[in-house]
Amino acid sequence: MKTAFDELLLTASAPGFEQRMQRLRREHSMSEFLKDRAELADTVRQIVSEVGRRGDAAVAEYTERFDRIRLSPKEFRIPQDALAAAHAQLDATLLETLRKAIANIRRYQSEIFIGNKNTHPGIRYLPLKRVGVCIPGASAPLPSTVMMTAIPAQVAGVRDIVVVSPPRWQGGIHPVILGLCYELGIAEVYRLGGAQAVAALAWGTETIDKVDKIVGPGHDVVQLAKKEVFGLVDMDSFAGPSDVLIVANAQANPAWVAADMLSQAEHDPGAGIVVTDSLKFARAVLAELEQQAPRLDRAEAAARCLKAYSGIVVCETMDAVIAWANDFAAEHLQVQCGSASRAVAEKLINAGAIFIGPFTPVAVGDYWAGPSHTLPTRQTSKYFSAVTSNDFIKSSSIIEYSHTELAAAAEDIIRLATVEGLDA
Question: Is 403 an active-site residue?
Fold first, then answer.
């Protein structure tokens, strides 16, 4: 039976399989993104340069141009009493849920933190002093992103955490975000977004002090701005649209797998990709997509993203499935292979986060378990990692020789220096 999503099915035995695989990979790759963004990158570079030269004045001008709101520099920052008022208005049940999530994240990030566990005398770990967090100004608030970026920094001991978010909610920032910042003890919040906010954090302006590192998601302009200021400050990674790759066999539940595909596709842009060794299972997932997609609130957007960026790849063997998944290097990698799930997961080496088994959907990681959902996208999980508390510390090497140790090494040190022409 044909479905509206039959074009998503890509089988190893079909003609042109490799060419279609290459196209699917290109859709999600960092290199293809950068090739197509030269003109936008030039615009972002200009914004970053102008903010560096003119400070607050340029920030105000670009905010008016892009966000259609006129702010004076003294209006950039959200007053402390506004944060407190937003916190007081938080729904009691929501606040309870936020506090549970905060506790989960803080516990996990503390357990993996290396900064206070080192005993070697030759290295010292210290927290960064000041970190900027970019929170997208979506139509709905994104409190999870605040928690997943700010709490790891707090666990590391960062003293000053600065939140920037565009003024998309009644000329300001959604009250849930403001209330959560108050709950976390974050007092410095600016209703600024886009490249101008990133540049202000990186350069510093008359009203905004320079930070040491910028983290958090954002649209292409924000990511290109982060790339532009890298070196002035550190950054987390070059983030792009959300994706999930689901490794599945015939033991998986096709209804659940289809739901997981849709949960990423509805991000618009977002991608849900399945790779399996079972053609029968792949067709069952297609049938489920046909049933589930029209029932979503964002049905049209999800269907568009499925057809543009997603696919169901059928390989001949599970070894081929694993190889394909490792090459793709997904942001979210789900393993739904029944009793073999953990064994398959052990063979998967490239992913921002790995979700094992049928009862571990991406939402568990996005909101609750403790690892940050700020993950490497665009196939960059081969070399970027999820944000953790360990990303907010720096190390200094500690070297101390005695008179005897220096005398013993002196001739060798002199010999190496002389070879390099550095006889002084």
Answer: no
